[in-house]
Design brief:
Length: 448
Amino acid sequence: MRLRRFTKFMFLLCGVTTFSLLHAQTNTKNSFTIQQCIEYAKKNNVQVKNALLNVQIQEQTNRGITAAALPSVSANTGVTDYLQIPTTLIPGQFFGQPAGTYSAVQFGTKYNANAGLQLQQLLFDGQVFVGLQARAASLEFQRKNVEVTEEAIKVNIYKIYYQLVVSKTQIELLDANIDRLNKMLHDANVLYKNGFAEKLDIDKISVQLSNLQTEKRKALNSIEIGYIGLKTLMGMPVKDELVLADKISDDQIKTGLMDTGYQYSERKEFQYLNVMKKLNEYNIKRYQLSYYPTLSLSGSYSKNAQRNTFDFFGNGDWFTTSYLGLNIGIPIFDGFYKDSKIKQSRLELKQTVNNIDNLKLSIDSDVEQAKIKFRSAIETMDYQKKNMKLAESVYEQTKKKYEAGTGSNTEITAAQTDLITAQTNYISAMYDAVIAKVDYNKAIGKLD
């Protein structure tokens, strides 16, 4: 009986241990700085991974373009068994018969075998050679697309990450207020028991405490949703734990405010469109060169044998055939197809140039608007911080008056309410300042 119990215990222990190990393997704890989050996203975000796959696809496309300019060699071999040898009609005059008559004659052997090599080499084709020249630009185009995608992901990671960092301050302020109200509630209960306070005073503090606890729960829920959003953006499993290692202060938010210099070329979108312009130019050149003749070289070397019995490796001759040819293709008239493609490509180039000009205007607008919003957000944050400090001072003085018996419960309740409002405004101002800083750095192309 004891042995059975011991055996059951060991099975249970092994089961619990296995479950714990599996649970530990499926849930990973990560402590990431903002840069680590960005690097993680570069490897795991689906949009970035697909953009990187486009680079690999373009590399293979370039190999296909290169193949068109390289020699093409093929081999073939075959055996034919003529179940009925082909019959040819020969004029009867060859055999002394009257004119207008024909004699049926069978030429050839029952079995035929052949083996040969064929060579094709393109010597000149304007479209192929432009394609060879455009390979590097095509690859660069896809790589710039990766950078544009990464930039968009990076902007959102910065915003969510630092908003979550700021939310820690929000929870700390809420906890401090809850502690204050708990102490006030305790003191009010003592005063009430001794006949120096009314039950209404206790109820008012209880209501404030309940409201703050509800506010904290809402904040925690929002933070939890923010973490889920950040992990999804990074491509991290939602079940994994993410800890934010970086901190942020008012001084850190203010850095870069005086950095007003920027270049269009520092924006990823500008670089992307310039590569597109280069590809448009190659496209025009490709269709222009399609008017030129094409030149190619072809060659063949083959062996052929005929037998009446299936014996190709015994006695008997193999006859050789070989040739070398130069082929010239001269375009004469194609219904104005090439002309339409050239004009279409030129119009597409104009569209790209227009988009570049419009992007310059957009960048100028983005920078000026972001600069104004950034400065305004910093000023608001500084003002709300001073206001919060003032509210804290007012609360402390009102609290001392209340504890000394010279202040009323209404005064301290009002002071507490003003403090919470000031703290909420400060946190909101910090959120806005973080967003404004990220938008400004993106606008000037300096989002590290």
